[in-house]
Design goal:
The N and C termini lie far apart (38 Å). Strand 3 (67-76) and strand 4 form a beta hairpin. By secondary structure, the protein is of the alpha+beta class. The chain has helices at residues 17-30, 39-43, 47-56, 98-112, 127-135; strands spanning 8-11, 58-64, 67-76, 81-89, 117-123, 139-147, 150-161. The protein binds coenzyme A. Coenzyme A (COA) binds at residues 31, 34, 87-89, 94-100, 122, 126, 128-129, 131-132, 135.
Length: 165
């Protein structure tokens, strides 16, 4: 379904697990190389697994009317860091500022909790995402590790300070 209205950000609660399943499976199908997970793995998730995902991370869903247009997760990493992962925007919504909206939601959440740092991992071959993260103020740390599930590829940790309000 195509929707043209301005998307809004929804913070998913446990009972929204079907929404998370729908958007995650779309993301994993469309951009399998971007994520440290797989369509095969998450297709097999049961309701309890999706609820667990929502329990361990805060999921922000961008929706236009009833259409999912993007998603991102924020996860606590101790008292001073929040981790951003799973960023995905539907192909026909790219280039319209959706990932900026999702990032702003994660940043506002981190700021509200008084957390000074947001981190993420991005594969070295995902040039577009790296460029966008740098544009959003993330800096490469030089800390590189094998990409989960594919040791031939590498990912790098990037960080961004959270300005106080
Ligand atoms: C990466 C992805 C999330 C980007 O989504 P998007 O909605 O097209 O991004 P946006 O249009 O919101 O761009 C975000 C910002 O980066 C800027 N930008 C876009 N492309 C850029 C580029 N190549 N270089 C620098 N800045 C860029 C935009 O202008 C925007 O900045 P602004 O808000 O100041 O105008 C999307 O392409 C995607 O889902 N890719 C597949 C999954 C993926 O790779 N996820 C990342 C996993 S680590």
């Amino acid at each position: 379904m195509v929707s043209n209205s301005q998307p809004t950000i929804l913070v998913l609660s446990q009972d929204d697990w079907k929404l998370l399943r729908e958007v995650r499976l779309k993301a994993l199908r469309e951009a399998p190389h971007a994520f440290a997970s797989s369509l095969e793995l998450e297709t097999a998730f049961a309701e309890a697994d999706w609820r667990h995902q929502i329990q361990r991370s805060t999921w922000f869903l961008a929706r236009s009317e009833t259409v999912d247009v993007g998603v991102v997760a924020g996860t606590e990493q101790g008292p001073r860091e929040r981790h951003l992962s799973g960023l995905w925007v539907a192909p026909n919504w790219r280039g319209k500022g959706i990932s900026r909206m999702l990032f702003d939601a994660v940043e506002a959440w981190a700021r509200k909790e008084g957390t000074p740092l947001i981190s993420l991992w991005v594969s070295l071959d995902n040039l577009k995402a790296r460029a966008i993260y740098q544009h959003l103020g993330f800096t490469p740390t030089g800390l590189v590790a094998p990409f989960p599930g594919d040791a031939q590829r590498k990912e790098e940790r990037m960080v961004r300070r959270v300005p106080s309000a």
